Amino acid sequence: MMNELHTKPIILFDGVCNLCSGIVQFIIKRDPDGKFLFGPLQSKVGKVLLEKFNLQDHPIDSFVYVKKNEHYVKSTAALHVVKDLGGCWKLLYPLIIIPRSVRDKVYDWIAKNRYKWFGQKESCMVPDPSIIERFLD
To answer: Which whole-number Å values give the CA distances from 13 to 2, 32, 44, 58, 109, in the listed order?
Structure first.
């Protein structure tokens, strides 16, 4: 699995957040070829990648997108994911022209309220056996 860390894009997400888990499920349904891998920020792989990119103090209220030894956070990560997801979703990518400070204010507002609006789990999401190979531990 560590070899795939260098070849497939990885989405690190808050594993106890219902909104985040829902977004992961949304991506999986639209990615039948399995081009994305997933891992909770709280996992071993999540911690290794956060350290690799000097993000170990990065708050868990975000997700990180890792692709080809590059990393993106917050709204920039979200826009790169929709671009790489393809289909009509890539039409959202031009929003990247909005200054990051503005995009991230909206992102931070949603992140701050995500548990209140969507709830959270006691522990990280457990993937369905049919997709477990796409999840890093």
So the answer is: 18, 20, 13, 12, 17
Residue 26 CB neighbours (<10 A):
12
Give me the helix-helix angle, 18-29 and 100-118, nearest 10°: 110
Query: What span, in angstroms and rounded, lies between the C-alpha atoms of 13 and 90?
Result: 20
**Contact indicator for 7, 36 with CB cutoff of 8 Å:** no
- Tens of pLDDT along 65-106? 999 889 999 999 999 999 999 999 999 999 999 999 999 999
Amino acid at position 56, single letter = Q
pLDDT above 70: residue 64: yes
Task: Give just the sign of the alpha carbon dihedral 49, 53, 55, 56.
Answer: positive
Helices (H) and strands (E) in the chain, counts: 4, 4
Question: Which residue type is seen at 44?
Answer: K
Q: What DSSP designation does 17 have?
A: B
Quick one: tokens of 50? 């956060």
d(CA 80, CA 67): 9
